[in-house]
Amino acid sequence: MVRLPLTPAEVERGARLGALLRQARGERSMLMTALEAGVSPETLRKIESGRVATPAFPTIAAIAQVVGLSLDAVWAEINQPGRDAEPVQAGSWRA
Q: Which one of 18, 42, 82, 83 counts the least CB within 10 Å of its CB?
């Protein structure tokens, strides 16, 4: 299977996602966040750094739940071109 290169918009959205999750994690360690979300610390590091611009939906959902972000908030933040991710208030989890 050949994977097509990511578009600039996908790369930008991945960077915003990573910044948003990193900010929402706050002082919590990457290791503890990853373990609670059921992902490897390396996966979380790659997502937060933007190296994985299109992570799987269940991965995003699990991390968002651990850091207290709703998927609605994540979607709204990452789909605003030209805007740096700003901290989103942790809210109730909505699937």
A: 82
H or E element at residue 60: helix 57-67
The Cα–Cα gap between 84 and 66 comes to 22
Contact 23, 87 (CB under 8 A): yes
The tally of domains found in the chain comes to 1
In a domain, 84, yes or no: no
Where residue 81 falls among pLDDT bands split at 50, 70, 90? low
CA 46, 85, 26 angle in degrees (round to 5)? 65
Nearest to 66 by CA among 34, 20, 23: 34
- Could you tell me if residue 33 is inside a domain? yes
